[in-house]
Amino acid sequence: MANAALVGMCGNFLRHIDRQEGVQLAQLFDMGGRLPLREIGRCENLEELAKKYAGESHEVLSLYLLSLQAHVRSEAVRHLELVCTCLKSWVQRYVEAEGSGLWMMPLMLQFTAVARKAANQLDQAKKSERAERQHQENNAYLKQLVALYRKFFNTLNKERSKRAGHVWICCELLRAYFKLQQVSACSFTLTTVTQSMQKDGFSPTDLPKAICVTFYFFWGKYLVFDHNLQGADEKLTWAFNNCPERALANRRRILLYLVPCKLRLGVLPTQELLHKYDLDVFVDVVKAIKEGNVQLFNNKMTELSADLIKMGTYLLMMKLKFMVMQNLTKGIFREVRGRLAEKTDKLDFTPFEHVFGWQDGCDADETAACLATLIYNGAIKGYLSHDRRKVVFAKDAPFPPPSKWR
Predict the structure, then answer these.
(1) How many of the other CB atoms lie within 10 Å of CB of 296?
(2) Residue 155 CB burial class (10 angstroms; 0-12, 13-18, ≥19)
């Protein structure tokens, strides 16, 4: 006799499919929800059950139930294989659906999330084996998932009405490329999507918010790696402003890349923002910039270097030292100039050498090199007169804002 909970699930699945209720369909399949996992694990006729009670779409339900059964029975590899087969079947139905098929997107997001989690868990479990078997490939299961997504990506690229699915698979590829440290592969994927959109005059902001926020986050993250700060700031700002307030973890994830961009462009975050999103990692950096405190900045960057390198923002954060040095120079300029009876824009090297030596361990030559670098990058308007040992500052705005630098 069929289990009532499983029969009810099949009936709900069929009803949601008939009514095109995508959100309810995804909730029905949510592994963190009220799935009858115990019954699924024990049932030996899931395929027959799905075929009998789930109508023409029984294949998708059957595959997902079998994947859940494998999960319950701790058959991790089979679980991933069945989820991928289920996702493949759903994507095919999505491609064949009339119109945009937007109602099918919530379940596609659900399936990709389950597949991603399963692949990551399997790769994590293999880490101890890799220590014993050096020849074993890293992230093998995630790479298998990437190969599948590339096929989806190429198929959906031909379907102009299926923008949402195309962009979401692009997001999954970008996510995987970052984890695999294959950032260079992001360029081709993003170029394919954006050129396709531009050709048809389509804006990503017309997509469902969940998809567009994710897309703009990964796009902005790639632009950070590509040193395109203006573009990264634009994409990440849009993602942050449109990410739900309650999604604190996702908003924090965006800010980990947006805050360094804003800092480099001369926009300092408030203490309230940093504390709200548990971004105390930036508190001392912001303080160092405001105070021109090179010692504090150097100490903090040494402490954070491993995490920042892992995130890919280390080089960007190191460029903030120019802002710290500019504010230090500005402080020396104002202090020395304020003590002079006759105001002048030509100041001796000596006070700069003393302070730079105290703050950053610079000798006379290194101090001159630092000042020359600041001038070259546009952080200071002026020039150095080595013969007279003078720093000559411009009379008009000698310390331009970071947005005006090279």
Answers:
(1) 17
(2) middle
What element of type H or E holds 385? Answer: strand 382-385
Calculate ∠ Cα 312-151-60, nearest 5°.
110
Q: Please, which residues bridge with residue 392 across strands?
A: 346, 383
List the one residue out of 298, 209, 198, 306 whose CA is nearest residue 250.
209
- How far separated are the first and last CA of the chain, in Å rounded? 74
- Only one residue has tokens 């997504």, namely 149
DSSP summary character for residue 268? P
**Could you please report the per-residue DSSP string of 295-319?**
HHHHHHHHHHHHHHHHHT-HHHHHT
Q: Which two tokens stand for residue 396?
A: 């008009």
User: Hey, what amino acid is at 37?
Assistant: L
Half-sphere exposure of 271 (CA within 13 A, CB side): 3
| pLDDT, tens digit only, all 406 positions of the chain | 457 888 888 888 899 999 999 999 999 888 767 778 888 888 888 888 888 887 788 899 899 999 999 998 999 999 999 999 999 999 999 999 988 899 999 999 999 999 999 999 999 988 766 555 554 568 899 999 999 999 999 999 998 889 999 999 999 999 999 999 999 999 999 999 999 888 888 888 889 999 999 999 999 999 999 999 999 999 999 999 999 999 999 999 999 999 999 999 999 999 999 999 999 999 999 999 999 999 999 999 999 999 999 899 999 999 999 999 999 999 999 999 888 878 888 999 999 999 999 999 999 999 999 999 999 999 999 999 999 999 999 999 999 999 888 8
- What are the CA-CA distances from residue 284 to residues 44, 56, 197, 274, 355 (Å)? 59, 60, 42, 11, 20
How far apart are the C-alpha atoms of 382 and 79, rounded to whole Å?
65
Whole-number Å distance between alpha carbons of 57 and 17: 8
Contact 264, 314 (CB under 8 A): no
Virtual torsion, Cα 35, 41, 47, 48, nearest 10 deg: -100
Q: What is the CA radius of gyration of the chain?
A: 28
Whether the CB-CB separation of 326 and 375 falls below 8 Å is answered with no
The two structure tokens encoding residue 107: 């379940």
